[in-house]
């Protein structure tokens, strides 16, 4: 394990398990338009994707303006349903240990700002990050490496000095393409699938004893 100066986290499915709530919101939205989706369809077409991509996949016959309105409705439903979020086990402790050693923290997410504010407030992580990268607002969201490269640039660290935490194929691709050592959370996919997608390590949560090595690699800020 190289010396670590920064940790970069995805949000949905990584710091808190939200896919069941997003599935409920998407199913509710589609039902309003006489459509349906099951868990497999959600995993393939929605989980981890940017809203631009989700709109194209779920409503291919609608134009861009309609996609924006439809996905805004979906996100409002998500916030309505996501009232009892909790952080994954060990997440708060890992971040506290990192901050105590001067390790920088970034959030790199495809989620829209309103959702990010809602989720961070719900799990008690508001104000915990040195920077937040909203991939959905960038010219190239995940799975492009740009969101993670932007996070590294803002933190002033090299990829070899940082670790990313992800759970979805688009997020894993984004992080690995940026050259980051990537830990995958098995909230939505199996360990085997995540390792096959390029994760360097797959864990159920941040309390996994294998992450002790991560803490040992923290370095004090220069």
Summarize the entry for a quick read.
The chain has 222 residues and is of the alpha/beta class. It has ten helices and six strands. It folds into two domains: 6-17 and 85-216, Rossmann fold (3-Layer(aba) Sandwich); 19-81, DNA polymerase, domain 1 (Orthogonal Bundle), CATH 1.10.150.
What does this protein structure show overall?
The chain is 44% helix and 12% strand. The protein has 222 residues and is α/β, with parallel strands linked by helices. The protein has two domains: 6-17 and 85-216, HAD superfamily/HAD-like (Rossmann fold, 3-Layer(aba) Sandwich), CATH 3.40.50.1000; 19-81, DNA polymerase, domain 1, CATH 1.10.150. Helix 6 links the parallel strand 2 (104-109) and strand 3 (131-134).
Using the CA coordinates, give the radius of gyration. 17 Å
> Which fold name corresponds to the CATH topology of the largest domain?
Rossmann fold
Number of domains: 2
**If strands are numbered along the chain, what order do they take across the biggest sheet?**
3-2-1-4-5-6
Overall 3D form: globular
Give the SSE string. EHHHHHEHEHEHEHEH
* CATH architecture descriptor text of the largest domain: 3-Layer(aba) Sandwich
Number of discrete helical segments: 10
Q: Note the main sheet.
A: 6 strands, parallel
Strand content: 5-15%
pLDDT below 50 for ≥5 consecutive residues: which ranges?
A: none
- What's the CATH class label of the largest domain? Alpha Beta
- CATH homologous superfamily classification of the largest domain: HAD superfamily/HAD-like
Query: On the 0-100 scale, what is the average pLDDT?
Result: 92
Distance between the termini: 19 Å
Structural class by SSE content: alpha/beta
Q: Could you give the count of β-strands?
A: 6
Q: Which percent range fits the helix content?
A: 40-55%
